[in-house]
Structure formats: C-alpha cells, structure tokens
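User: Could you check the structure of this?
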Amino acid sequence: MSLLQRNRPIKVLIVDDSAVVRQVLSKALSQAADIEVVGTATDPYVARDKIVKLEPDVITLDIEMPRMDGITFLKKLMQHKPMPVIILSSLTRKGGKLALEAIEAGAVEVLSKPGGSYSVGEMAEQLADKIRAAARARPLARKAASRPARVQPVASTNLDLTNKVVAIGASTGGTEAIREVLIRLPASVPGIVIVQHMPPRFTTAFAERLNGLCAFEVREGQDGDAVYPGRCLIAPGNFHMMLRRSGARYYVNVKTGPMVHHQRPSVDVLFRSVAKAAGPNAVGVILTGMGADGAEGLLLMRQAGAPTLGQDEATCVVYGMPKAAYEMGAVQKQLPLEKIPAEIMRLVGG
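Assistant: Sure, the predicted structure tokens are below.
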C-alpha cells in the first residue's frame, strides 16, 4: 500500500550471473508501467552494493551463481535487511529443492526461468504479477533451525471421514503457510486437495518435502488418483486439478487448460469442482496470496453448504486472496494461521 501512496513504480534489482537472463528479464519487465528495473547485478557481492545504493523494493535472485550462491546470500540478506525476494530457478529436480530451501530462508516467491517449452512471453506476465505481490509482502527472517523437527498435531477424530474432503488454496507465502497447517493435522485426516501457485517440478519437490514432515501421505496429484483419509494431493505445476466423485469414491482429474486468474493450477478451478463433487461434506480454506483466485470458487463451496475458512490479515504474507474471498462473502470464519488446523478438525468432526 505504501508504494501506491508514493505513486511510483516498484523498483526491481535483478541478480543473475547470466547476461542473457538479465537482458531478457529487463526487457520483459519494461513492458509494465508500474515496474522499473533500477539495476542488475552479476553476483551477490555486486548486489550487496547496489541494494545500498539503489534501495530496490523487490529483488529477483538466481540460486546458482559464482563466488556466492543465492541461498547463502539470501540468508545473509534476510538477517541484516529483510526484503521481498523472488527466486528464479531452472525447471529441474535440483532447482525445485533449492527453491524450497530459499523459501524457508525467507524468499516470498519462486518462478522458473524461461527455456524449453516455457517461453519468455509466458514468464513475463507471471513475473510482473509476482513482483506486484512481493512488493506488498511482509518478509521476515526465517530461522528454520530453531523449529522443532515435529510438532504436536491437533486432536484426531474417531469418526468415519471417507465422505469428507478438505480443499486448500494459496499463493504468495503459501508454501510455508500450508506447511504450518499440514504438520499440525493428525494422521486421521480426511482426504486433502491443495492448489499452491508454483511452477512444474517445484510442486514435486514441495510435495516430497511435506511428505517427510506430515503424519499422513502427501504427494503430487496424478490424473485418476483417489482421494481418501490419510492422503493429501497437491496440484502439479502447470496443470489444473479437479475433484470428482464416482459413487462413494473421490478422485482427481489433472489436466491442462486455459489459465484462470493468470494461474495454472487455479484455486478457483479446484474449489468449483469441490463444491460440485462434495458439497456440504467439504471444508474450504483460503490462505495467503496475491489476487482473487479462489474467491468465487470458495463462495460456491459455501453456497453448497461447506464451511469455509480464511487466513486473517495479521498472519498473511499477502492479504489478497483471503481478503477478496472475505469481501465476497465466501469466508465463513477468519482465523490466524495457527488456529486453522484445529478448526479444520473440529469442522470435519462435526
């Protein structure tokens, strides 16, 4: 909001050792009237000096660079001068894992570099949107080492939950918010379906990371996968995921299609399908994120009889998606992030 009050473009510093990438990103962002690339840097040492001189609002940061890698630089930056950082990484398994490590260190967004089937044109619009979201974010230094390896899950229920489904949607700041929710849910959870705005490969690494932390199975969803208690499916990057029902069995459809709210996967696409397939047997949860994706779908869920929850402003990295849903009347109850797991279990148990 402060940027809007100052009525000036968002100042961006691009940090990447590739001259081609710096040029491509600078040219792509020059098309956005509300964004100004104030400088570029070939490595973290140059970036450090330019941060002091240029005072950027947002930094785009490559992970693999000479002299100092992006993760090390990010940790130092978040310790001494926390600011919004968007990670740019390659569409590889290693890139996905490093991107998640960067988010744990304090980055607010991840985006894949253009290349192969992922064109500069597709990336440019998404990057501009992520920069706008990052400029509104409230980044905080994250000290992962101080966290306990395990947390005590909330109370479980002895009820049969085979007909229950929990649907969760998130964007900017959502990877950490989803983690905070899932690690506090017990093994006896109903089937969970999730859309988090992330590129391909990154969602694979995200699911694998959560699977090692949670008391239940977490995996990237594949077309036809069953949804049942003790299983959580995360929509794969660049694919929409929809809940379907056949008799007493829930399953997911995973397929391509037009972007919705500039997103694929889209929270709205998931929530609309949940409203139709599960109706009052579902619980809808919308977490931190920029924009309005998920608001209309969550409203359909509430109109179908499903209880709905929204993350409150104080605990959001970006209070965009939950705000849009709340103002539309889609959110039945707003809660701090730490209270959402217990409320989910109360609702499914009730």
